[in-house]
Design goal:
By secondary structure, this protein is of the alpha/beta class. The chain contains 17 helices and 15 strands. The protein has 2 domains: about 140 residues, Aspartate Aminotransferase, domain 1 (Alpha-Beta Complex), CATH 3.90.1150.10; about 270 residues, Aspartate Aminotransferase, domain 2, CATH 3.40.640.10. Bound molecules: pyridoxal-5'-phosphate (PLP). Pyridoxal-5'-phosphate (PLP) binds next to helix 6.
Length: about 450
């Protein structure tokens, strides 16, 4: 790229003139200008000003093996030269999606052995929704098509993704959601647990909200429950341990399919290939994308359980669905090598045995005691910090999420990239972080919290 010939101001002006950013207040962006990241190496990203920023979000939950992996560039280059593209429609295939599918079947939970490709998590959830409804139709139960989801869920930004998701603001702009999707309470103990209620009991109560929704609709009308193992974009809401076993029991009891959205948790983030394995679940679909290629190429894989796959084969008939880039050979080749690197470097074991527990401890010991922190929590290498004005009462600062935004802005100024969601700060570091990187991150976050507290208590 020849961006070096442009000043920051020039790039920002062109950006403002021509580029509509995702999830952005465009008026705001015009006024402030974008932060432009130009290159990255290992755990760091660099902007046009030459600032080095520790990337606590792994890009956007995806760059699990870190930046600057020449190997992936080489694989993409070789695949592009040999075969840049061919489709997988009409009984055609190319080698790399085939070999990737075999690999995915090997690492997925035992009951999951088939893959449907797309280019994004949203597309994969679109596929999942259509596939699950198609499954019940093939089984002679077309009315069994209702999906139960949760408030605060994030399942992508297409119309199906937004409809499956439980983000109120997004639904507000939907002007007509996909019908027959219901949203129940999320397992968000920090705000929803009642006085005197244990985490265990709260987890059961939140799971039973799913059962109530199933019973209300009638189990004969409910196709599936969809959930992220721990909600990501909704603020790293980690359910109590009692939640998933109860959900599993409820789904089995009412013959409701289990759809896990592992777009964030897939490929090592929780210390297993998939959170399903950590939680002991055998889902009927697992949505994956992001870290499948560590973000080096856009690719999603909907992993499909044997129950659904067997019906597709037995009943036959075309499933009228697919994307031009389903099984894109370059993206699949990059994914295969990415998974190989994750294995070769033992990154999943590292999260499970070393950095995951250390991360939890560091958040707890170094951040949870801070004057404006109400709670820290984590799930593998996903973390959350709740920002409050009063620790004991968990009262929030006025101004909606402005306090968390203030923390975020100080954090970035301290060289720490992290996100604010409502009143929650979230982290999703690459799996290459070591104990030293976690220490460095905590140093920077503490400084950001200190500075934000001074600002916030002043106003
Ligand atoms: C990011 C995300 C998606 C959407 O993926 P895109 O690639 O942005 O379409 C879906 N589900 C979850 C849980 C996600 O985090």
């Amino acid at each position: 790229m020849t961006y070096q010939n442009f000043s920051l101001k020039q790039l920002q002006d062109i950006d403002a003139a021509h580029h509509l950013h995702p999830f952005t207040d465009h008026k705001d962006l015009r006024d402030a200008g974008a932060r432009i990241i130009t290159h990255a190496q290992g755990p760091f990203v660099y902007d046009t000003e030459g600032n080095e920023i520790l990337d606590g979000m792994a890009g956007l939950w995806c760059v699990n093996i870190g930046y600057g992996r020449d190997e992936l560039a080489d694989v993409a280059y070789a695949q592009m030269k040999e075969l840049p593209y061919y489709n997988s429609f009409f009984r055609c295939s190319t080698p790399s999606p085939v070999l990737l599918a075999q690999k995915l079947a090997e690492i997925a939970p035992k009951n999951v052995n088939q893959v449907f490709y797309g280019s994004s998590g949203s597309e994969a959830n679109d596929t999942a929704l259509r596939l699950v409804r198609h499954y019940w139709a093939l089984e002679g139960k077309p009315q069994k098509n209702r999906i139960i989801s949760r408030k605060w869920a994030y399942h992508g930004s297409t119309i199906a993704g937004t409809s499956l998701g439980g983000m109120e603001a997004m639904h507000g702009q939907l002007h007509g959601a996909v019908p027959n999707i219901a949203h129940v309470m999320p397992p968000y103990a920090f705000e929803l647990k009642e006085k005197g209620e244990s985490d265990h009991d709260f987890g059961l109560r939140a799971a039973r909200a799913v059962e109530d929704a199933i019973l209300e609709a009638g189990p004969e009308n409910v196709a599936a429950f969809i959930g992220e193992p721990a909600m990501g974009a909704g603020g790293v809401k980690v359910p109590p341990e009692s939640y998933w076993p109860e959900i599993d029991r409820i789904c089995k009891k009412h013959d409701v399919l289990l759809m896990l959205d592992e777009v964030i948790t897939g490929y090592g983030r929780t210390g297993e290939w998939f959170a399903a394995q950590r939680l002991g679940l055998e889902p009927d679909t697992i949505t994956t994308a992001k870290a499948l290629t560590s973000g080096y190429q856009p690719l999603s894989a909907l992993l499909v359980g044997d129950r659904i796959a067997a019906t597709l084969v037995e009943k036959g008939g075309e499933f009228y669905h697919g994307y031009t880039y389903s099984g894109h050979p370059v993206a699949c080749a990059v994914a295969l090598r990415n998974l190989e690197i994750i294995e070769r470097e033992g990154l999943i074991e590292r999260v499970r045995e070393d950095t995951g527990p250390y991360f939890a401890e560091a958040l707890e010991e170094r951040l949870a005691g801070h004057g404006i922190v109400g709670e820290t929590r984590s799930f593998g290498l996903m973390g959350a910090i709740e920002i409050v004005s009063h620790k004991d009462t968990r009262k929030r600062f006025d101004g909606g999420g402005a306090a968390a935004v203030a923390v975020r802005d100080h954090a970035i100024a301290e060289g720490m990239m992290m996100r604010a969601v409502g009143n929650t700060m979230i982290l999703s570091p690459p799996l290459i972080w070591t104990r030293e990187t976690i220490d460095m991150a905590c140093d920077r976050i503490v400084r950001a919290l200190d500075k934000a507290e001074i600002d916030l208590r002043k106003t």
